[in-house]
Specification:
This protein is of the alpha/beta class and 353 residues long. The protein is built from eleven helices and twelve strands. The protein has a six-stranded parallel sheet with strand order 2-1-3-4-5-11, sandwiched between helices. It has a four-stranded parallel sheet with strand order 7-6-8-9, sandwiched between helices. Strand 6, helix 8 and strand 7 form a beta-alpha-beta unit. Helix 1 packs across helix 2, helix 5 packs across helix 11 and helix 9 packs across helix 10. The protein is elongated, with a radius of gyration of 25 Å.
Length: 353
């Protein structure tokens, strides 16, 4: 572009500034901004270059008046500080801001229809174009009254995308749990125990299903899982309830926080990880690589999942829905120091009393 643009601006760039720098009319700039036809590719490229050079941000309110769109997204999420939901919330916020949408957030205490329906009604009353459901809501979707004109995106498994105008982008938690369990079996462990998450979370049931499928596939013994609530303390307590089993040499834990608690319980019992018990977690929290014994775990790419989900949502709102309304993304096994073959010299696990 020419060097006529002022580098040090005291005010945000305007459409007039873009038109001047690109050598076109304001109407042409408006057509490019609103992705209208009747603009040559050369002119469009010149305008976009000027927009980029000036850092121009179209006025969302002005565009919504023109298109009769609110450019407002609603998000329903459980009030939690858990790593997965928090990561996805951050991704949704960033995507909305980058694409000129405002975001209205409603937090619920539980993923029940009685909690979710008032949240839906509140967002519909705010004239949102779409509602994003964070996990876990899949079991409640059929019970909710959702208006026809509002697009729904679930950051969960794809089976909720059967209804019209609903998108789903989810992580293959069952497949990832299968891989975690199979990893421990391949190391030579006779079986793999499991510390599950809360029974009313679909993430828990999917990870539980993957663990069971891997045991069945290998033809090995399956024991009743212990259950936690995602917290380190619950992982600690669940692990204490398992200690003393003679075939307890490997445990797949449904998230990293519970895995950290489980490791603490093992060590306090006078045993070692992975010398006596191998552990595999789930999520790959940032701290997991920097523990005294770095944690083997399943990495979920929350950033990529959220980025893909929001891209598909924005395209749908612009009139270009995807041919397939659901996508599943794989997890990745991250092998670190907490998983190893069972030790022949492993001491017997005595009950804790």
């Amino acid at each position: 572009m020419s060097g006529n643009a002022s580098v040090h601006r005291l005010r945000p760039a305007s459409m007039t500034d873009v038109a001047t720098l690109a050598g076109v009319s304001q109407k042409t700039v408006s057509r490019v901004v609103n992705d209208e036809p009747h603009v040559t590719e050369a002119v469009r490229a010149r305008v976009l270059e000027a927009i980029d050079e000036l850092g121009f941000r179209p006025n969302a309110a002005a565009r919504s008046l023109k298109s009769q769109r609110s450019r407002r997204i609603g998000l329903i999420t459980i009030g939690t500080d858990l790593y997965g939901p928090t990561s996805m919330l951050t991704g949704v916020e960033q995507a909305c801001r980058a694409n000129g949408y405002s975001l209205a957030i409603v937090r619920t205490v539980a993923a029940t229809a009685s909690e979710l329906q008032p949240a839906v009604d509140s967002l519909v009353g705010q004239d949102v174009e779409a509602i994003v459901f964070s996990e876990p809501v899949e079991n409640q979707m059929d019970q909710l009254r959702l208006p026809q004109g509002v697009t729904v995106l679930t950051l969960g498994p794809p089976d909720v995308a059967d209804r019209e105008n609903t998108l789903a982008v989810g992580l293959d938690e069952s497949g990832a749990a299968f891989a975690a369990t199979d990893h421990l079996l391949a190391l030579g462990h006779e079986t793999v125990w499991h510390i599950a998450g809360p029974a009313d979370w679909t993430s828990s049931s999917r990870r539980l299903a993957g663990w069971r499928a891997a045991l069945r596939d290998a033809g090995v013994a399956e024991h009743a899982p212990a259950e936690g609530d995602w917290s380190p303390q619950s992982g600690y307590e669940a692990m204490r309830s398992l200690l003393g089993r003679p075939d307890l040499t490997a445990v797949f834990v449904a998230n990293d926080q519970m895995a950290i608690g489980a490791m603490s319980a093992i060590q306090q019992h006078g045993l070692s990880v992975p010398g006596d018990v191998s552990i595999v977690g789930f999520d790959d929290m940032p701290i997991s690589a920097y523990l005294p014994t770095p944690l083997t775990t399943i990495r979920q790419d929350f950033d990529e999942a959220t980025r893909l989900a929001m891209h598909r949502l924005f395209r749908t709102l612009d009139g270009y829905p995807p041919a397939e309304r659901h996508r599943m993304l794989p997890g990745q096994l991250i092998t670190r120091a907490t998983s190893a073959p069972p030790s022949p010299e492993r001491s017997h696990l005595r009950p804790t009393g």
